[in-house]
Amino acid sequence: QVQLVESGGGLVQAGGSLRLSCAPSGRSINPYTMAWFRQALGKEREFVASITWRGGHTEYPDSVKGRFTVSRDNAKNTVYLQMNSLKPEDTAVYYCAAAPFLDSNYAYTTSYNRWGQGTQVTVSS
């Protein structure tokens, strides 16, 4: 059973950067496509980034493309989300998600069967 633990959230000024980490415990992340979602107060959970279990394919919505970068280090069993040029509208709880051998529909919450508890990111203006 994969348990996902996020870290790296916090308070940052607009234009700043943060790096989130997701370190699954209990099993290797190698066969899992990993993703990041976020949920702002009063809004639905939305897709932020994904990286396939093969490691070569990433996806982002237009809202973060060019600012956020997802990566994985299978040797360290960790997935990262580097967030640059942060905006106040990026404020949300960020969740790590995992799905075994997922090769499509990366942006849908229903594609993932493992979720972390979330880490708060707050961007001040």
Description:
This protein is mainly β. The strands form two sheets. Strands 2, 4, 5, 6, 9, 10 and 11 form a seven-stranded mixed sheet that branches. A hairpin with a 4-residue loop joins strand 7 (68-73) and strand 8. The chain has strands at 6-7, 10-13, 18-22, 32-39, 46-51, 58-59, 68-73, 78-83, 92-100, 114-115, 119-124.
Write the layout of secondary structure elements.
Layout: E1 6-7, E2 10-13, E3 18-22, E4 32-39, E5 46-51, E6 58-59, E7 68-73, E8 78-83, E9 92-100, E10 114-115, E11 119-124
Number of DSSP helices?
0
Low-confidence stretches: none
Tell me which oligomeric state these chains represent: single chain
Distance between the termini: 40 Å
Q: C-alpha Rg, in Å?
A: 13 Å
β-strand number: 11
The shape, in one word, is: globular
Overall pLDDT metric: 94
Helices and strands, in order, run as EEEEEEEEEEE
The percent of residues in helical segments reads under 10%
How would you concisely characterize the structure shown here?
The chain has 125 residues and is an all-beta fold.
List keywords for this structure.
single chain, about 120 residues, mainly beta, seven-stranded mixed beta sheet, four-stranded antiparallel beta sheet, about 0% helix
